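Hey, quick one: can you model this chain's 3D structure?
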Amino acid sequence: MKLPQGIQFSNPSLVCKLNKSLYGLKQASRQWFAKLSHSLISLGYKQSHHGHSLFTKTTQSSFTALLIYVDDLILAGNDPKEITTVKNYLHRTFKIKDLGDLRYFLGLEVARSKHGITLCQRKYAIDLLSDTNFLTSKPVPTTMVRSTHLHQNDSKPYSNPLLYRQLVGRLLYLTNTRPDITFAIQQLTQFMANPTINHHKAINRVLRYIKGTIGQGLFYPSNYIIHLKGYTDSDWATCPDTRRSISGYCMFLGNSLVSWKAKKQNTASRSSSEVEYRALAIASCEVQWLTYLLNDFHVIFKTPALLYCDNDSARHIAANSVFHEKTKHIEIDCHVARERLQNNLFHLLPIPTSEQGVDLLTKALEPSTFNYLLPKLGVLNLYSLAWGVLLGTGFSGSFVFSFQMLSCVHKEPEYIDSEA
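Sure thing. Here's the predicted structure for all 420 residues.
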């Protein structure tokens, strides 16, 4: 390294030592999380093995949970003294900023009332529409036209693939509170490398749909019985390029949607029964993970979860081993569904296809069917007049739990170990 002008060393063997902040280094995030985790564990918190960013502390009279996203934290619990204690400790150690009751976190807007809590990303959606000049566009009733089947090379290449990738990335974050756009975004992400004009038209339709549903989000009612249930479905060989199938699931805690997914399966399947069975296996893994995670919150289920599937063959394969001849070609890992069913982790129940809300995650639907199934996922528009009348006085800052949000901002590097 060359010496700056004006600096001279009498000893030619001396060199300059570069002092660099922790920010910008490759190991920065790892070192920060290690330091924060060690501090919380020393305070009596226990790190979850099923969600490594979750820390909990349990005493005879209180329960406190702390969730971390980089240097932003959400703190919740039923003991105000413990919440104050951990906030003061974090402030002494890291110089945090207390933002008060949880109302806005990483683009997620939280509204609370005696009826429950809603999560939406209204401001994020408005910013997205403003940046793309779609604030004045004409809304559409669904994210995709039912007859649309996107595939590679279906039209001329789009002139600005970088813009397409940026839009898909921003829409992916919007799916955190918008299961209604999940299937459309799943389709659009498959063409990130070489988008075409038709793919760009499809993403424009999604933006027009968001224009008409800016305030839409998830509603979590406060008066329901805590019980885990899920729905699983698939659409056979719908990909024109690979003939692979789309599988999806939705997981509910009571009447609250807590987990959902739409994904193209890794291999092509020989029958619709095999497709449904694979989707069932994926959903059973999610049920088991949620069961473990809820145990960290001391939510212990005395009765097995309920898993609904609208395919008779898939249910029979999972429940009856005599179907071995029909399933010899299916990978062993798919039979975890049968193993978990036999271990009484969940009960497998039928459901009419017309009532299967997961259809929203596996295929494009007509507007009437789309709007009929959407409320089944707990999706509502808080800014709709109809919901304001239904919920009476609307949502306010009061809530049945004591939620606090902290923001840890790294300003000074003095708390970093010298070895780091």
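One thing worth noting: Residues 28-101+399-415 form one domain.
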